[in-house]
Design a protein that fits this description.
40% of the residues lie in helices and 16% in strands. The chain contains 13 helices and twelve strands.
């Protein structure tokens, strides 16, 4: 699609693999990308196969056709990600014993497990390797599947610089960017922006979603909605606009790339404890985690306290940037992915 964590990871994954001299054939069963993104993938990948037909039976016929084409090529590894039934089917259609690595992006907890179909569970059991985005997610999946699950974070884009020290007396600017779906806590952000206790705080949102068209935000005049962005320059502008990132999610998160991007920039964040989010806490001041089951009052007080500490100059981004360089940098992740794919 145009935006999203998996889409961002796949783009960066292909880019860094290409930079390392590895050829990738990319198959996307439900491609909804703009032309400039399609052109980017064409420049990065060896071959790309994009299905743009929304009908399920047409996509099935397309997948059968593409698998016949790809059976004539020799691959050193197959890398799949996502959570669709088509993954098992593609593996069956390719008719090969090549090393198969599957990447699961969601939380892996009991709520997530309830969405696993029989076909998808077979993917998790039969893959040569299954990769989770964080240690907590891997542990949840190991307990459910009784097999080893490896952990490798997703690729994220490193934007240089940070916003600190900030101007004394300026309003504290909280921001969220990503998909606008109810599970990401958008309604809570709107409610906070309308709360009179946040008179010295600004709330900013970037993204798109059917549940929240631009007109929805007209009823929240203190919240600033900026639409969507798709480029690295757009991401840099967002990170330089805000003082901290908020992710009040109840979604079964894996390890949100937006938090990794904030970390690489040295931007503090406050988020709920979904999935692997607690894995990337650096210190209790600049990276804060609260229960996803928190009441509005609890969330409000946590965000207020965060804003007060930012205004008082208690926040530093150095610890985050050091941890990012150590565990989440592109060079570190490239080595880990090459290792698990068996192409070191």
């Amino acid at each position: 699609m145009e935006t999203g964590g998996i889409e961002s990871h796949v783009r960066e994954f292909c880019f860094h693999m290409k930079s390392a001299g590895i050829e990738i054939d990319l198959i996307v069963l439900n491609a909804q990308m703009p032309q400039d993104m399609e052109n980017l993938f064409k420049s990065i990948c060896h071959r790309i196969f994009l299905c743009k037909n929304g009908r399920s039976y047409s996509r099935l016929l397309w997948l059968i056709h593409i698998s016949r084409i790809c059976r004539s090529f020799k691959y050193d590894a197959i890398y799949s990600n996502g959570q669709g039934n088509s993954i098992a089917l593609l593996r069956l259609l390719l008719k090969r014993q090549t090393r198969w690595v599957h990447h699961h992006h969601m939380a892996g907890d009991k709520k997530d497990q309830m969405t696993w179909t029989a076909a998808y569970r077979s993917v998790l059991m039969k893959s040569s390797k299954v990769i989770a985005c964080s240690k907590q997610n891997a542990l949840e999946m190991q307990n459910a599947l009784h097999r080893d699950i490896d952990t490798i974070p997703c690729f994220s884009r490193k934007i240089e610089g940070n916003n600190f020290p900030r101007d004394n007396g300026a309003a504290v600017r909280f921001g969220y960017y990503g998909r606008l779906i109810p599970e990401k806590g958008i309604a809570t952000l709107c409610r906070l922006s309308d709360d009179q206790d946040f008179n010295k705080v600004e709330f900013h949102i970037w993204g798109e979603g059917i549940a929240y068209p631009a007109s929805f935000f007209d009823q929240y005049p203190k919240l600033r909605y900026h639409g969507k962005f798709n480029s690295e320059d757009g991401l840099a502008d967002v990170l330089r606009t805000i003082d901290a990132f908020l992710l009040l999610s109840v979604h079964p998160e894996g390890l949100p790339i937006s938090l990794l991007e904030a970390m690489g920039f040295g931007l503090p964040w406050l988020a709920t404890d979904k999935g692997g989010i607690p894995d990337i806490v650096c210190d209790p001041i600049s990276t804060r985690v609260i229960p996803s089951t928190s009441s509005y009052t609890h969330m409000k007080n946590a965000v207020l306290s965060f804003a007060e500490d930012i205004a008082a100059g208690k926040i530093s981004g150095e610890a985050q940037q050091e941890l990012y360089a150590e565990k989440f940098s592109s060079s570190r992740l490239l080595w880990r992915w090459k290792e698990v794919l068996g192409i070191v």
